[in-house]
Amino acid sequence: MAKMFRMISGALVRRCSGVAAGLRFALRPLCSAPGPGYCPTIFALSSGHGKCGVAVIRVSGPASASALRSLAGMKQELPAPRTAVLHSLLDPGRGEPLDRGLVLWFPGPHSFTGEDCAEFHVHGGPAVISGVLQALGSLPGLRPAEAGEFTRRAFQAGKLDLTEVEGLGDLIHAETEAQRRQALRQMAGDLGRLYQGWSQALTRNLAHMEAFIDFSEDENIEEGVLKQVDVSVEQLREELEAHLRDGRRGERLRSGVQVVIAGETNAGKSSLLNTICQRPAAIVSPGAGTTRDVVETPLDIGGFPVLLSDTAGLRDTGDSVEREGVRRARERVEQADLTVAMLDVAEVPEDLTRVPHFLPEYLRKVLGVSPRPCLLVLNKTDLLTGEQLDSLRGVLARAAGLPPVCLLSCTTGDGLEHFLGVLQKQVESMCGNPLVGAPSLTQARHRAHLLRCVEALAQYRHYRELDLALAAEGLRLGLTSLGRITGRVGAEQILDLIFKDFCIGK
C-alpha cells in the first residue's frame, strides 16, 4: 500500500504542478519577513476616521499579548478571552495616562485573523487615537498595518476564502439594503460553498481519471469509471453555464444599475434628474442644448443602487462642443442597463391614430436599431387638457410592442410616483432578490475564471476519445480556474479522494 501511495502521489504531483503553480498566492506563508520565524505584529485603527464616540484599535500577531500588557499596565494576567474589561491605558514609555477604555483579548486561532489579537475601544477623539497609535508604534515588534492586511492574514490562515474576503469588502462599501443583503450572504460563505462544491466534484472526477490512466491496465479499477466522469463533467458544465447566464444580476447589484435619461432637446431630461434626486444637479433652461456633458448622480431606488445619468439632447448640430455631448450621450445609451427615453408630449402627433407608429420610430432614434431595455416617458402632461390626456392614455393602452410608458409632468409632479414605481420594478428585475435562489455571481473576476473553466471542460470533451491525458489536463485547468476564485485547491485533495473512492489492488 505504501508503494502504491508513492506511485499515485508522484503521478499526481507531476500532473497537478500546474494547479499548484497557478495558486501560489494561496499557499504563501502567513508572514513574510527578513528572518526565519519572524512575524511582525500589526496594528491599526479599525473604526472610521474622524471624531466619534468610540474608536476601535486592533492589534494582531505574536506580540499582541505583550502590547496589551504594556498599554493596560498588566503584570501577567490577561483578560478572559472575548470579554470586555474596563481599564486605564498608559503610555509604556512615560507612564502617562492615555485614556480609559475597554480592552479585549482574542487568543489565536479563535480570532478574525487566526493569530493572537487584542482590541482597544477608546474614546474617538483625534488626540486619544493618535496617542494610542503612537504608543503601540513605540513597542518592539509592532508596525502599522498595510491596507487590507488584517483580512489578508485571515485569508492566509484559512479563516476566509477569497469570495468571503470580497463579500466583506462589499459589506463595508454597501450603500443600499439589497447590496447589504448580497454582501452578507457572500461573506457568510454561500457563494464560496457553491464554487467549492463544484471544485470538489471536479477534483473527484480528476482523481478517477488519474487512477484510470495510471492503474487501469494492471489494477482492479471499477468498471464504468470514465462513463461516470463523463456524466458528472457534463452536469457540471451545464451548472456553470446556467450560473453564467444570470443577466449580470449580482454584478449590477454590487456596482449599481446604469440608468441613462436620453431623448431630444428640451424634453425635460435635466428636470427629471433634478426631480428624482431632489436637488439641482443639472442646469435647466428654456434654451435647447443646455446640457453638453453627462451628469451623474447615485441613487437608492427601493433599496437598489442606481447610477442615474442625464445626457445631452439628441440632435444634429454644427456646434462642436454640443456635437461631442451628443456623441457621449449615444455612447452612454449603448452602455446603459436601462434607458429612460424622454419625449415632450407636445411632439406626439395630434392625430392619435399615428401614435402607435410614431413612438416606436422615436425609440429607434434614441436607442438605435438594437433592442435595449427602456422606459418611455412622455413629459409635460400639464400642457394637455384632461380630455386630451384621457384620449392619449386610451391609445397607449391599446398600442402593442411598446415598452412601459409613463405620463408625467416634472413641473407639477403628476405621474412621478407612478414612474418611480415602474423604474423600481425594472431595476429590481435586473438585480433580482439577493436572498432567493442560488447566490449570484458578483465579480467580473469570477466570471472570467468560470468562463475559463467552461472552456477547460470543453477541452475534456474534445479529447475524451482521442487522448485521456489531454482530457485529464482539461479537468486540471478547470480545477485551477475554480481554485483561483476561492483560493483553495491542492493535489492532496485528489490523493484523499483516490483512496476514498477506489479500492486499488489487494
Could you characterize what this model shows?
This protein is of the alpha/beta class and 506 residues long. It contains 18 helices and 12 strands. The protein has helices at residues 2-15, 17-22, 64-72, 126-137, 149-156, 162-173, 177-187, 190-215, 225-244, 249-255, 269-277, 320-335, 355-367, 386-398, 416-431, 444-463, 468-486, 491-501; strands at 41-45, 52-60, 85-90, 97-106, 117-124, 142-144, 257-263, 295-301, 304-310, 338-344, 374-379, 405-407. The chain has a 6-stranded mixed beta sheet. α8 packs antiparallel against α17 (468-486), α9 (225-244) runs antiparallel to α16 (444-463) and α16 runs antiparallel to α17. The radius of gyration is 31 Å and the shape is flat.
Strand content: 15-25%
Structural classification:
alpha/beta
- Give the N-terminus to C-terminus distance in angstroms: 9 Å
Give the fraction of residues assigned to helices: 40-55%
SSE layout and pairing:
Elements: H1 2-15, H2 17-22, E1 41-45, E2 52-60, H3 64-72, E3 85-90, E4 97-106, E5 117-124, H4 126-137, E6 142-144, H5 149-156, H6 162-173, H7 177-187, H8 190-215, H9 225-244, H10 249-255, E7 257-263, H11 269-277, E8 295-301, E9 304-310, H12 320-335, E10 338-344, H13 355-367, E11 374-379, H14 386-398, E12 405-407, H15 416-431, H16 444-463, H17 468-486, H18 491-501
Parallel strand pairs: 1-6, 7-9, 7-10, 10-11, 11-12
Antiparallel strand pairs: 1-2, 2-5, 3-4, 4-5, 8-9
Helix pairs in contact: 1-18, 6-7, 8-9, 8-17, 8-18, 9-16, 16-17
